[in-house]
Amino acid sequence: MTEPQTAVAASPAFHIMTKPTGAICNLDCHYCYFLSKEMMYPGSRFRMAETLLETFVKQTIESQPVPEITFTWQGGEPTLMGLEFFKRVIDYQKRHTRPGLTIHNALQTNGTLLDDDWCRFFKAHNFLIGISIDGPQARHDAYRVNKGGAGSFAQVMRGWQLLVAHDVQFNVLCTVHAANQDHPLELYRFFRDELKTQFIQFIPIVERATAQVLPLANLGWSEREGGGLSNESRPLYTQSGNLVTNRSVNAQKYGDFLIAIFDEWVRHDVGQVYVQMFDVALGAWLGQPGGLCIFAPTCGQALALEHNGDLFSCDHFVEPDYRLGNIQTDHLLDLVASDRQREFGQAKMDSLPRYCRECDVRFACHGGCPKNRFSLTLDGEPGLNYLCAGYKTFFNHVDRPMKIMANLLRQGRAPAEIMTMMAAADEARLQQALAKAGRNEPCPCGRGKKFKQCHGRLPSFPQKTA
After folding, report:
1. DSSP E strand boundaries for 102-224
2. What is d(CA 103, CA 112) in angstroms, rounded to the nearest whole number?
C-alpha cells in the first residue's frame, strides 16, 4: 500500500458509505438497487477482513483533518457481520484517533436482526441507527419482504421496539414508491403518532432499467404515463436506460406526496418533527446549498467502500466504470482527491441542461441526483431528472413558508413561530369561505357536512339560499 501523495491539509471534505457485507442482505426487498451488485464479485465471501477494517479506519482518520468524523455502515445488511465486528470497529477507532477528534458512528439497518445485545452496544457507543420502514404494515410489506417472499413488518417493529427500549438514537428511512405514494399522511402520522419518530427521511424509489437487459418473459408495461417494467423484473447492477419499473414512484406524485406532508408539518410539527427534505430545503432558502448531496451544485463527496476495499465514486454508482481503486493498494485520500473523482463531481454541474439552468428553483435542486437524470427536456435536451416535475411542484409550493422561516432565523427567532402565522392565515381564509357559503353547499371547514348542518347552524353565519 502506498502512502498518501495528496497533502492532508488540501483534502476535500468527504463521506464514505461503508458496506462490510457488500450487497448481502437477509431481506429481498423488491426495489433494492443494491442486491444485484453481488454479481460484481462472483465467489466472494462478502465479509470485510479485519486487516482491511483497520486499514480503512486508519486511512479515514488520516485523511480528514476535521474535529469530527462520522463512519457510516450500510449494506446489504451490515448487522450480518455480527456484533464482534463492530466491537473491533470501536477498538480500531480508539487505536487510531488523535487528540481533539470526536468520532461518530451511524448504521443503516432493516432492523430484523436486532436484539438486546446489539441495542446495548449501540447505546453504549452512541451509534445513530437508521431503520428502514415503509409505513404501516400494508404499505411496508408490499415490497419489503424476506427471502421467502413474506412481509417483514413484524420483525422490523420488534427491532424498533428494542431501539426504543434501550433509548438508542434512531431515525426512520422510508422509501416512497408505487405502493405508498398515494398515502402520504397515513405514513407521516404513523411515524409521528405511533412510532413517536422525530427524524424522518423520505427516499424516492426510481428503478432505472432498459428492456434489453431484462429477460423478455419478465417485460411488461405499466398503465401509467411513460410506461414501465413489470414488478417481477429486477434491473442489473448498472445505471442505464430511460425506463422505470412499475415499483418506481411517479414523479408528480412524489411532489404531491411531499406537499401533503409539508402542509401538515408546517402547521403542527415545526421544531418537533424533523423531515430531512424540509430541513435541506430551508438551508437552500438560507443560501446554504448542499445540505444533501443530491441537491448540491456538484457531487463527488459521498463515496462508497465495498467489502473488499474497492472504492467507488458514489453509493449509486457501484459499477465497474466508477471504481476508483482499492484502499489496500492506494491510499483513500489519493482516491478521493483524484482527478477522476473531481471530474465525476463536476460533471453534475457541467451536464445540466438549459431547462435546469434557467429554472427558478435551481438554487434548491441543482438538477438532483445524476443517477436519475435520464429524461429529456421539452426541447429534447438530455439530462433532465426523472423527478423534475415533482421537485419543481414541491419547491414552488414551499417558497413562501420557507422564506418566512428563513427570515425568522435571520432575526434570531424560532422557525416554529410560523405555525401561529399559518393558523391565523388559515382561520382568515376559513372565515371568508364561510361568509360566502350557501346553506346546501359543502361546509368549507372540510368536515363533509352541508353548511346548514355545520357552521351554518351558528348564529354568526346567516343562512344563504344559494
Report:
1. 102-109, 128-132, 170-176, 199-204, 208-209
2. 26
Distance CA 399, CA 104 (A): 34
The grid coordinates listed for 197 are: 419518530
Mean pLDDT per 10-residue section of the chain, whose length is 466 residues = 55 86 95 87 95 98 95 97 98 97 98 98 98 98 96 98 98 98 98 97 89 38 36 60 88 98 98 98 91 93 97 95 97 96 97 97 96 95 97 98 98 98 88 84 83 76 52
Question: Is 315 noted as a catalytic residue in this protein?
Answer: yes
| 218 Cβ neighbours under 8 A, 6+ residues apart | 229, 230, 232, 233
> Does residue 189 contact residue 148 with C-beta atoms inside 8 Å?
no
For residue 224, CA distances in Å to 227, 245, 272, 341, 372 come to 6, 11, 37, 37, 19
Q: Which of 282, 60, 259 is nearest to 176 (CA)?
A: 259
Catalytic residue among 269, 315, 330, 334: 315
Q: Residue written as cell 423520505?
A: 202
> In DSSP terms, which residues pair with 297 in a beta bridge?
none
Say how far apart CA 62 and CA 228 lie, in whole Å: 46
pTM equals 0.89
Residue 47, burial from CB neighbour count under 10 angstroms (0-12, 13-18, 19+) = middle
Q: Contact 327/309 with Cβ under 8 angstroms? A: yes
Q: Of 140, 136, 216, whose CA–CA distance to 175 is shortest?
A: 140
Q: What is the CA 82 to chain-centroid distance, rounded?
A: 25
Taking Cα atoms as reference points, which of 120, 422, 92, 365 lies closest to residue 251? 365
